[in-house]
What does this fold into?
Amino acid sequence: MSYLDLPRLIFDGEFQADVSTVNNIVANYDIETFDADTSPLSWNPDGSGAFRLLNCKVRGIADAGGSDHDDDPVLTAVIGGSTDRVGAKIVDLDTQWQLSSALWGLRIELRAGDTTIVAGDFEPASFRDLWFPPPIGDQAARATARFQSVLQNLRWAKPGVSPFADRLRASTTAGKLSIRLTTFAFFNADKSAAQFAFGGVVGAIGPYRPREPHRFLTGRRFAPIVTEQGLNTAGINYFDGVVHDDRLVVDLANAMPILDDKGSVIDQGELRLGVLLDDAADQGATLAEGTGFVGLGEPLPYRAAGWLLDTSGIASVRVPRHVDIRSRPLALLRRDDNGHTVVVRETLNGWHVRADEHIHRVEAGGTLSTTVYVMRYGSPVHRAEVLPELLPPIDSGFEPVVGTPPAAFAIQPPRPTGLDGQTTLQVRCSDPETPRGYLDGQIYLMQLGIGGVDLAGLRHNPLEPIAALVFDHFEIPDCPTWYDDIRPIFTQYANLYPIMNKRLVRLDRYEDVRHHRGILQFAFSRDVGDPNYMPVTRDLSRAKRRMILRWLALPDLPLGTPPPPAPAARPAAPAPVPEDDAVDPTDSKAQFVRRYLRAIRRSEQ
Amino acid sequence: MIQIERKYLEAVRAAGSPHELHESLQAAVVLELATIPPYLTAYFSLKPGENGDVGALVRSVVIEEMLHLTIAANVLNAVGGRPVLDSKEAVLDYPSPLPMGTVGGLVVHLGPMSIPQTELFMAIEQPEDPIADRAGSDVVTIGDFYAAIIDKIKDLGEPAFATPSAPQVTAPFYPSSQLFAVTDVASAARALEIVVEQGEGTATSPEDGDGEGDLAHYYRFAEIRHGRRLVPDRTAPEGYSYTGDPVVFDPSGVHPMITDPEVGFYPEGTKAGTLTEQFNRSFRHLLVALQKTFTGHPSALDAAMGIMYELRLLTIEMSLTPDPRPEHANNCVTPCWGYGTLD
It folds into this structure.
């Protein structure tokens, strides 16, 4: 049951995501056409990639026995990153897949004064269910997203320091804790403002249970209807809930349109959870209580000041014993003049199929592998047939085609699910042979179906396919040289990360690289989970990284033969990708979504 | 090299046991640490691609000061002491005299690279008897202090190394001839000699004694001050003069940082405040990482190295951010190197 289980701790504060944005523009990867003076660099070209949790404090604890421990030091704890190394990094999978930014090298520590109550490493995870709330009236909410993962390599305070921590430690398993961060109100409009690249965050930490996924909830999936244009019509985002004993616990933090960094939620009327009595009642249906649905608990208090921060968006309602919750769909309903309207409901027939890790980097010749879970009304389904489907190639008309060649991405039919509803999805990846020209490898997108179940009824989030970056095969030369092997790679990074390049190490200049050889060897040889890992973007194949290290270790750093002088006229830069006027031009994620959805439609035609 | 009060030298000479050397070695650790913020601020103040020779000189000194810090802490550990770095007392509140009661009223300021700042750095590094730049005063320097420690360690002999308190710290960032494990009298003496020679040079040569032809710190700064390389010169009384190739310092190639920044100049709610808070927090993280490094977890030095680069990145952002005070609108934010919070 994860962080929705008890004992649970919630916290809130700020996050900083100092992302670099030159790499948001695909054409900037082309070293033949990139021009630092004229190429578009987006809203934060000097971003360092740092991700930090700041001013985060424990807001409360919830426990089966109530919270009668007012003097527990955990209640005064701050939640911070590590204190003895650099900040974590936030990184996209690829310039052609920007909807699953991941946190790398994040360590979370709960500290009360000089005492560390518990600390652990956040297993790298990408955000899911990214949401751009539609404007409601004249109120425009900012994007929200949720990162769910586990904390591992836990270090606990001595028993007795915090009774809550002792109970949490006793409740959890496998040396892990479940954690969810929901980020909101990210501010990037004014570079000179104190809050530039900051936003709000609410978090929850609870026990991890054996064999549950690390990165999503195996529970009840509430899924809005999304139009062919990719628009969520519900005004509420995807969310999940779990049933535990006589309670339904839902996580609404990433479901509500959040206006500001105080967590104020746009008023959408009186909202209530309920059980649908008619399986066919869908979003928008008007139902009467008692005949159309059974209400659960009181109306949700989401309109109360401070609700998001006080609850971390988690709501718990009692399920009366006589209500059949395990075989009927759940819904969120709005009270109106004629009764109640279904705002968003559970997937059709309660089916839910999801992969634990949905973002992958795979070497040519390697195998993508992830655990897939099939559930119905939150219970594992035995002998379900999981049907992975490679999404067709996407041609935006402006950027390299994604998803080709399909033959390099050989999906293996998974075995039917076991008693635990789990199976393993594997994809054998071969050399895509540089189909994108100036970009290494290829992006493949996949979605999951279930045998005998209507795919549309699963109501997958179109912004959350399984995405894989398959690297090109690369033969490491025995004696790499600067001109032939290193410079092309380093020049691309030099173009994309000006803060590194102009001011730390000029990666595109041999003498500068030579001068900083030691620190480059250090950074390129880090473990991928280390926050100092280079490249920060983690988008270089293992073979190319080894080649760089081999070259850096050669005593004379061979130069090789300079290429013939470049022609006087550089190739013309590609036509800029048109921005979507309907979307804030500084909101690169929203722009990416619109381009992606438009390209899918274009490719399908 | 830094001039210190004679009593610190006498305290070393009076030590009757390794334990009685701990305080002196801790003072050396704090002193070496204290030089890093002013030097790095000057280095960070140089605009990218400008003042290349000046930047290389300052950077080379900073890297050696970090080595000296490591050596002092290694020796302290080797004789059973415990270096303290993550402490408010280990960090100076600039502007400030250097630790160990530096004589002559020397006050260290944080500020951008300039000729007066270079003169301050020369004063910090002044040898007992600088070649080609004689001051001629009879002073006790940090070089004498280290020499006294070497003598004392020789007196105390091998038993002083019987119970080291933490593993020695070595790192691939430095040649093994400069950074090595201190385990006995010979290695301790050799390590401390490196500190003295890199800082002061030898009595007869401005070179730092490592055989690579590098100048001791004082002379590197003096090259900036004189605008010329120090070269052998038979016509000069001491065989050297500042008559080599030009070392050009261009004040327009310096970010408009201020001298003596204070946290109060950069209030909360401004971008300058946000950056200052983060810089101080990262500096604190550096101290925490160094504390770990020198108290049993030598591999934490890697993390400390990473934090050095994080501080550099933050300073870049500061250099692009205007001072929020209207009368200083043409200045950029300057790092304060305060002992930050961990929150």
Q: What stands out?
A: The interface with chain A takes residues 48-49, 172-173, 268-271, 273-274, 278, 282, 284-285, 288-289, 292, 300, 302-303, 305-307, 309-310, 312-313, 316-317, 320-322, 342-343 of chain B (CB under 8 Å). The CA atoms of residues 29 and 69 of chain B lie 5 Å apart.
